[in-house]
Amino acid sequence: MRVEYTSAVPDDVPERLATEVDDAVEPRTFAPLDAAAARELAERYLEHFLKFTGTRAERLEDDAEIEVWDEVGDRAREEPDPLPLLDALVTLGYERVPLDDHAFLAFVAAGAVEDAVVERTDLREAIAERSRTGPAWRLAVQDVWVDADLAVTLPAPLDELVTMLGTPDGTPGGAGRRERRRASKRQGRRGRHR
Fold first, then answer.
1. Which residues pair with 146 in a beta bridge?
2. How far apart, in whole angstroms, are the C-alpha atoms of residue 138 and residue 161?
3. How far apart are CA 131 and CA 144, in angstroms?
4. Which of 47, 74, 80, 170 is most buried by its number of CB atoms within 10 A?
């Protein structure tokens, strides 16, 4: 039995579709946040995280309140000065490290902080300065993953703190800093004996 495939897409595109221009998405505009408003948004983001990692009922309840997730992400990527919010998120995450074993700070780092490091060249030096002087930022930046070609261009100490994916020359490789393996205590200092 022979089966032929025919496309449902016509070969000729109507003239109207060929000349239409997609609507451009305008960037959102945000009211600047002072320290108090930034802390309040960071606390709402923490509430979102706690529900997101909570029981099924809490996760379902959180689905209705996803706006805070979008707002934090959009502010990190698009707001002219998201540093007050980022500072509030990192500080709140660092305060919780003993309570949740780094979970919220890692969540913040893998989201808003990573977006800022990867997508915002205008913020990299300010984030690097914060990482030089503050343990909270230093710890947060360690949970940021970037491609190797970007990692080597970051200002110090970001270039050493971030987790590098791949290798700078493009050859396959895992996460640079985190891929190093140590021998287990059971194996001795030189690893498995053969």
1. 164
2. 7
3. 12
4. 74
Supply φ then ψ for residue 35, to 5 degrees: -60, -40
What does the alpha-carbon distance between residue 5 and residue 42 come to, in Å, rounded to a whole number? Answer: 53
Give the per-residue pLDDT at 166. 85
What whole-number distance in Å separates Cα of residue 137 and Cα of residue 86? 10
Q: What number of other Cβ atoms are within 10 A of residue 93's Cβ?
A: 27
Tell me the per-residue pLDDT of 5-52, one tens digit each, with 9 for 90 and over: 555 555 555 555 555 555 566 667 888 899 999 999 999 999 999 988
- DSSP one-letter string for 116-147: HHHH-GGGHHHHHHHHHH-HHHHHHHTT-EEE
The answer to pTM > 0.85 is no
CA dist 25 to 17, 28, 77, Å? 19, 9, 14
Are 38 and 76 in contact, with CB atoms under 8 Å apart?
no
Find where tokens 């205590």 sit.
185
């498995």: which residue's tokens?
192
Q: What would the two tokens of residue 101 be? A: 């074993």
Structure tokens at 124: 């990299």
